[in-house]
Amino acid sequence: MRRVFGVKKEKEPPPSINDATDRINKRGETVDEKIKRLDAELSKYKEQLKKMRPGPAQEAVKARAMRVLKQKRMYEGQRDMLYNQTFNLDQVAFAAEGIKDAQQTMTALKSANKELKGMMKTVKIQDIDSMQDEMMDLMDVSNEIQESLGRSYSVPDDIDEEELMGELDALEADMGMETESDGVPSYLQADKESDFDAELNLPSAPSGHAVAPNRNNTQAEDELGLPAVPRASLRG
């Protein structure tokens, strides 16, 4: 059967944009090399024409130079055409890459959308609200427990707060008076000397008559039989 109908040939895949671009670039490189050789040949003809005198030989060199110049113009036109083709292929490749990027972006967005829908099914607003309410209730119960545990056992419940405030005000007033008395200088306090005498607990000397001298000692004595100390020396 294969001999009668033959075998179907498999079609080659069409060339890609990169393959076409590489092939055109290689052709362009070949054309550039030819143009360089023609430029080198033209430079030689120019040097010859500068040294030659007008005549048939000079005309022959000019004819060769014109032929080389025509070939150069032809190759330059081919090179420009290849450059334009390469530019067009680059534009198409850029557009194709943009479309591929868009396709990948759409695929990623679809996958993310599907994943988000699956996640949203497991998370509901009602569940979150109920959980928040439950947490608030638990916090209130915890505060009540802390207050109950922190209650003092030694303070009676029948204490009047107004009475406590009155005692506190009186205590503050007493503290203020003590502060003011401490701030008064010693020379302005009239009872300072009498307080000093009271602390010493010494009897005062009689003011109407002098103390009788002792037989064995000419110095005056007090009621206890001790030598009397002058009052002026105590104040000094």
UniProtKB/TrEMBL annotation:
Q: What InterPro entries does the database record attribute to this sequence? A: Snf7_fam
A GO BP term, please? vesicle budding from membrane
Q: Does the keyword Coiled coil apply?
A: yes
Q: Name one GO cellular component term.
A: multivesicular body
Instruction: Quote the Gene3D superfamilies the UniProt record gives.
Output: 6.10.250.1710
Sorted UniProt keywords: Coiled coil
Nuclease found in the keyword field: no
Q: Which domain of life is it from?
A: Eukaryota
Q: Where is this region: Disordered?
A: 1-26, 177-236
According to its UniProt record, which protein family does this protein belong to? Belongs to the SNF7 family.
Instruction: State the protein's name.
Output: Charged multivesicular body protein 5
